[in-house]
Amino acid sequence: MSNQDILARSATTTPSPQARNHAIPVAKLIDVSKCIGCKACQTACSEWNDLDFTLGHNTGVYDNPHDLEANAWTVMRYFETEGEDGHLDWTIRKDGCMHCQDPGCLKACPSPGAIIKYANGIVDFNSDNCIGCGYCVTGCPFNVPRISKTDHKAYKCTLCSDRVSVGLEPACVKTCPTGAIMFGTKEAMIDQADERIIDLNERGYRNAGLYNPAGVGGTHVMYVLKDAKDPGNVHLPVDPSISPLVSLWKGVTKPLATFVLGAIALGGFLHYITVGPKDEPVDDDDMDPREEDPDKLHHPHRERHESDVRADARADIREVRRNP
Amino acid sequence: MSSLAPHVATRPGIVRYKASQRANHWLTAIAFVLLALSGLGFFHPAFFPLTYLLGSPQWARILHPWIGVFMFVSFTILAVGMWARNLWATNDTQWIRQIGDVVMNRDDRMPPIGKYNPGQKMLFFALIGTMAVLMLTGIVIWRSLFGVYFPVPVHRVAVLLHAFCGFVLIASIFIHIYSAIWVKGSIGAMVRGSVSRAWARHHHPLWYREVTGEPVQHEPPV
Fold it and tell me: pTM for this structure?
């Protein structure tokens, strides 16, 4: 399937079609200050994507399932923190793929086209091309992708790329009863967030702010956080970026190692052509120890050499010629 | 005609590798080729089509770690048997100092050395080191069996080390293969099991003296 809306493909060293690079970036804005933790978004996600996560165990918190799974692409995470005035702050964050502008999963993926980034910013997995290596998990700064235990493919939120491509909002956005999840152009979502942050600041949340981390080029899923100074409170990385280890692994290492291996192979070939091989040395008579010491003929370690065999064979042939 | 012991060598000459070692070496070599092809496929998009040599990219992902375990075990058996012969010995340092003479085929200037030359010994330890790290990091990044037991930061270190050691191993084997093509008579040693007296005397004089009990003629001064 050819799709000119795909601006970046994993494991592809030539440019993807750029005809649609004027597409307007989209974003989902999750306002945690409006979230009541009803899990309607989780249900809508399962419903639209036809996912049925395994029933887990109560781990003492409301999170259910306890973590993101191959068939649970979004999970409400419940946090009890101390607010600025010392009171209990119950914060619920809808966790899932952040749809990074610079996706670590796409950078790490070894399979061409298994991870793609659409012109509108959505990062999607193409399961047909997924080989199940889990490199996307290694590359992701947010620990989002999960490998299925049944088909060994990687899964995560698609930002309902199928719905968005036909002008619909993602299922979670559609179902959210409080309007905590919004969807639109990235620009509009940033404007929306700015208004909301001013509102929150006025209501006492002085550290309220937008989570759109620059380290990954910004994200197409953004949060309005009550305390943006400390995203760690809701288990978000403070300043996420693609790990330098991943950048090294998938960056200069690849062409450099390939070049060196090629150079070694070529160097060997040129050495053979110019300097040449070490030819198989031959026994010359004056080096044969039997000439010097006849006893050596019966040395226990003495083993017959090919030249001896050939000499015997020649003698046999002469014998046959004499007495046919 | 002298009788040959087929389980030792399949032709006359001085036995260099007995049948079990030859079988072990070539099983390790086949495993290495499959691992290098699939591993390069995972490493760089330019080599990704190589993963189809194992059936499909998915099959390459499934088979690569199992073949890796096989290579690790077969190489370990090989290495244990060759260990004592690969320790640094008389004249080895001098031989390395004269590596230029080795490369330029000025063999008459070389000091006599034992069963393995220092280049072979360095390869031996490079293989041991890289295969140990490849095995350990390979367990970490064996996603379907052990991946979940290690946190993501450990995976990041493991994939980088795995790629680096894979590169060093492939580069080392390139040199190993070229050396076998370069030094005529070597491939026969690993295929048929024996070398000629002249080959042993020329390339590994101290080993020749040890095996035959005969003095090495014109032994160059150390």
Answer: 0.87
